[in-house]
Amino acid sequence: LQQCRASRLPAPEQEYRFHPERRWRFDLSWPEIRVALEIDGGVWTGGRHVRPVGYRKDVEKLNAATLLGWRVLRAVPEQVKSGEALTWVRSLMGAF
User: Fold this and answer.
1) Are 30 and 14 in contact (CB under 8 A)?
2) How far apart are the first and last CA of the chain?
3) Span 68-96, average pLDDT
4) C-alpha distances in angstroms, 17 versus 5, 30, 43?
5) What is the predicted pLDDT for the residue at 53?
6) What is the predicted pLDDT for the residue at 44?
7) Which residues in the chain belong to E strands, given as ranges?
8) Burial tier of 1 (Cβ tally within 10 Å: 0-12, 13-18, 19+)
C-alpha cells in the first residue's frame, strides 16, 4: 500500500470479493479496471500455495477470475518488498 502511494497509483482494495457466488477474494485489487495482485506466501516453507490441494484451488480461483474478465498478477512477498510486483502492476495499468 505504501508503494502504491509513493508511486501515485490508485489505492487498491484489500480482500476484494470478486466472484458473485464463491467467497474468493483478491489480496489487492483495482475493481474499476479488473486488475488484481495475489501474494502467495509460504512458497519456500511448503505453504498452502505449493501443496497439491492448495495449488489446485488457486488454479480454479484464478481461472474463474480470468473468465470474469480479470487480469491477475501473482507475486511472492520478496517480489512485493523489492518493488518488482509494483512494476508489474504499473505496467498492466498502463495498458488501460
Assistant:
1) no
2) 21
3) 91
4) 22, 12, 23
5) 79
6) 52
7) 13-17, 25-30, 35-39, 71-75
8) exposed
Q: Residue 84: helix, strand or coil by DSSP?
A: helix
For residue 23 the three cell numbers come to: 467467497
Closest residue by Cα to residue 80 from 17, 31, 38: 38
> Distance between CA 26 and CA 19 in Å, rounded?
10
Q: pLDDT at residue 83 above 60?
A: yes
Q: Determine the residue type at 89.
A: V
| Closest C-alpha to 72, from 94, 96, 92 | 92
**What counts of helices (H) and strands (E) characterise the chain?**
4, 4
- 22-71 pLDDT per residue, tens: 999 999 999 999 999 999 876 555 556 566 777 899 999 999 999 999 99
pLDDT of residue 71: 96
